[in-house]
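HUMAN:
Could you generate one sequence with tokenized structure?
ASSISTANT:
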Amino acid sequence: MREHYERLRIRALWSWQGLKHIWRTEGSLHQWMWANIISAALAFALPITAGERGMLLMGGVMVLAFECLNTAIERVVDDVSEERRALAKQAKDSGSAAVAVAGAAVGLAWLCVLGGLVL
């Protein structure tokens, strides 16, 4: 049982180190964090259901997760070679697109929630 807790502790440490790295090196994570803070404040201030609030909060956290994955893709591509290559650009652009699509999904969720308040 103790070894399970030790593995959990080590994995949490690795995750924390990764998050610290991304926080220090990726300005876009800061932007998404501010967007999440504003989104969460609105989600708690508006008269919406717990399910709607949970969906909006979860969506914001998922955007942060996609940003972490995008950074991982960028680091692996750059580790292989910093030479400009078409496939490397496509990989990086695809990771960036994943973040943008996740952000658009949260925006769409907000439109639905706000539309429900108005109607």
